[in-house]
Design goal:
This protein is of the alpha/beta class. Helix content is 45%, strand content 22%. The radius of gyration is 13 Å and the shape is globular. 34% of the residues are buried.
Length: 126
């Protein structure tokens, strides 16, 4: 059986640990990046099935990262997370969709483990 891969892009180690635990419990192989540049390098080497992208990052914000993913014709499923207002997620969804990216969900921090699990199960049912 093929294992789905997931990369978490978030600079908060607590969030990365939490998502990793949930994702691994349903069969994902998980890696992480602490910023958008690391993400772009990682997906060039091995494109994951799913990318979880924090929209607020220190070196390259989520919108800029979306532009880069679109330029690279990324086909990974995308899940957005942010601690900002819902409007920020809505804007990212509109921009990502307009650029042809595969957006499968979004979560506002703090998010419930059930919500995270549901989105991950949708992307890769175990």
């Amino acid at each position: 059986m093929h294992t789905a891969s997931l990369i978490i892009t978030d600079d908060d180690p607590t969030i990365v640990k939490l998502i990793t635990e949930v994702a691994e419990s349903i069969g994902y192989e998980v890696s992480s990046a602490t910023n958008g540049k690391q993400l772009l390098t990682a997906i060039t080497e091995a494109p994951p099935n799913v990318i979880i992208l924090d929209l607020v990052m220190p070196d390259m914000d989520g919108i800029e990262t979306l532009r880069e993913l679109a330029k690279r014709e990324c086909t990974s499923a995308l899940i957005f997370i942010t601690g900002f207002q819902q409007g920020y997620l809505d804007t990212a969804n509109l921009i990502g969709s307009a650029r042809g990216l595969n957006i499968i969900g979004s979560l506002n921090k703090p998010f419930s483990l059930d919500s995270l699990n549901d989105i991950l199960q949708t992307a890769y049912p175990s």
